[in-house]
Design brief:
Layout: H1 18-40, H2 46-49, H3 54-75, H4 80-96, H5 109-120, H6 122-140, H7 147-162, H8 173-198, H9 217-231, H10 233-265
């Protein structure tokens, strides 16, 4: 563990302002409702009556809200240097995702998101998660009503790494272990969130684990747990293990590289252009 020397400048690519924080709070609250509405809407509500339409409506709403939140964060200080780093990391993450597509949750992009969010902060992390998932969807042809949910869930995943305590003090093996533990839990959290997004699309008659808009909340909770165990537990476990292994083995070197690049970029220093030579 080490601390920054007194007076050392801390480089934060995207400082969160009250406006961008409010935008993030709004999209988080709406996103929570979009993911959990099957448990929030009683069987007699109009939302439950349109259970096949609601995911599409929430997907359209999330596109707008994620765009608003990203714009607010960008306005708070996403300068050209930060945009350049955002592009490099998003392109790297998008390229890593297809490596293990369809293979037991081998998704190496998740560990990169954890480390990037840790070093570059929650604001940058939220935008990075959104952009990476969008670029990945374009690369793999995975564009559909699930994409806004993926973008938001990955934004939360990466932002959470930036909100972990000790960002300016905790270093060394202790920090890597904390990030590995967070990556393990967040990998399951991401999988559970995406299960919530896709679960309502199943017809109630299709399976005993499908969402039933006429059932009580405890019954649907039991159905959802059975759905997760039957369809995604192995995938989520594979994602979590891969994230932990890559974080423990490659994390120390990548953390140093990201911090060195952040210091050299000097994000707080405005970009200036010299005039034409005399």
């Amino acid at each position: 563990m080490s601390t920054n020397p007194p007076g050392r400048r801390r480089h934060r690519p995207v400082p969160l302002t009250p406006r961008s924080t409010a935008a993030l709070a709004l999209v988080t609250a709406t996103g929570f409702a979009a993911f959990t509405w099957p448990f929030l809407a009683p069987p007699t509500s109009q939302v439950a009556a349109h259970s096949q339409d609601a995911p599409w409506l929430f997907a359209g709403l999330l596109v707008l809200l994620v765009a608003v939140a990203a714009a607010a964060i960008a306005e708070s200080g996403l300068g050209p240097k930060a945009v350049a780093m955002l592009g490099v990391l998003a392109a790297t993450g998008a390229a890593l995702r297809p490596i293990g597509a369809g293979t037991a949750g081998i998704e190496p992009m998740f560990f990169l998101m954890v480390l990037s969010g840790r070093v570059l902060g929650p604001g940058f992390g939220f935008v990075l998660g959104n952009v990476t998932m969008f670029a990945s969807a374009l690369l793999t042809g995975g564009v559909g009503p699930w994409l806004p949910f993926q973008m938001l869930a990955m934004g939360w995943f990466t932002m959470g790494a930036g909100l972990l305590p000790g960002r300016d003090r905790l270093r060394g093996r202790g920090e890597v272990v904390v990030l590995a533990a967070y990556g393990f839990l967040a990998a399951f959290g991401y999988g559970t969130a995406m299960n919530l997004a896709g679960w309502p699309f199943m017809g109630a008659l299709a399976s005993s684990v499908a969402f039933d808009p006429q059932a009580a909340v405890p019954a649907n909770v039991a159905r959802f747990v059975a759905y997760c165990l039957a369809t995604s537990l192995g995938w989520d476990l594979g994602r979590a293990i891969v994230t932990v292994v890559l974080t423990l083995t490659l994390g120390p070197a990548l953390l140093k590289a990201l911090r060195r690049a952040t210091r050299r970029a000097a994000f707080e220093t405005p970009v200036t252009f010299d005039g034409p030579p005399a």
